[in-house]
Amino acid sequence: MQRAIAIAITVAAGAACRLDPLVKDQPGASASILPKGATVLGVAANPELLNQITLNDSLDSKALAMTGGVILRGAGFAGTGPTMVPVMFWAFGGAERAPAPIYVFGRGDPTSPAFAIEIEHPPLVDAVPGDREYEPIHTIYRVAFTDKYAEQRITTTAALADAVDIGLVEPPVAAKQFVNWPIVRPGLRLEVGGGDPVAPIAVYGRGYLLDSFRLGGALGTQPNPFGLLPTSQVSFLRGQSDPGYNTARPIFQASVPTGPPGTNPNYTPVSVVINVDLVPNVMATTITRDSELFMRSATGAITGALPMVQQFTFTGATLDLQLQFAEGAP
Questions:
Q1: Euclidean distance between the first and the last CA atom of the chain, given in angstroms as a whole number
Q2: What is the b/e burial string over 212-249, where b = at least 16 CB atoms within 10 angstroms of the residue's CB?
Q3: For residues 61 and 54, is the Cβ–Cβ distance under 8 A?
Q4: What is the per-residue pLDDT across 83-105, written as a single tens digit (0 to 9) for each?
Q5: Phi and psi at residue 8, in whole multiples of 5°?
Q6: Which pTM does this prediction carry?
Q7: What pLDDT is recorded for position 28?
Q8: DSSP-H helix ranges across 13-153
Q9: Does residue 25 register a pLDDT over 90?
Q10: What is the CA radius of gyration of the chain?
């Protein structure tokens, strides 16, 4: 969260320093803000940026070529209870605990749940895949339009800084929420089951329209009171005769939330990887629950391994593995 707050401060404060002479001489002017009706090109118009995103969005180009550009789901098992719970999930590569900012625009009090999102103005991101600051999981900032706003296009963080300085918008306000919202190369669709794959959502970034997928629906927006993202664990299993750990059949500690979160999050896609070696004569395909592997405390911490586990290792890797909450929905 410190990184996200710093970006917001830079937007609000640093831009004011940069634009001070301009505002005095030409009130309301900005070369970065596009006028109403301006055409915003897709990222394909910038081959260098397109290549950067394509190489770094953590998606397999060969697999996408075989599926016609559809990001497929994987299948695993979730939850710590006694019941087998099969789940579908999407994998979007590595993830860190410090989310990247995303700015959503609207009207009203940005500190209120009644803040009305302006659907005609796409959200804005600062970092894209391949940037050091990029993360697929974003912390939400709300940006309220003022009465001076006249449907201009704010497509860069420089434009956002200018818009704050000349009074088109109020300074960004941290919603203290996070959402799994990965940016991907253009032209892809997401497999959701129950019908056709879904199309991406457009967001602004670097002055272009980018493709993205907002995952988890209403339950996917989670509180983030502490800044750093919470984590859960995912186990990849290896039986005695298996050549390696089976990353295609994960056993999740997390489970699909059954209702909205309270003050604290009740779900996180940030998955800490545990490699689990099973005892001889136990096949990895027979394990369907985290509770067959570990004993856990009331807080979810591992307190011991169960007899099926020969050994387990925390790998240090964290992945963005998003459970699908409802069939047919991203």
A1: 25
A2: bbbbbeebbbbbbeebebbbbbbbbbbbeeeeebbeeb
A3: yes
A4: 778 999 999 999 999 999 999 99
A5: -65, -40
A6: 0.89
A7: 60
A8: 15-25, 47-56, 61-67
A9: no
A10: 22
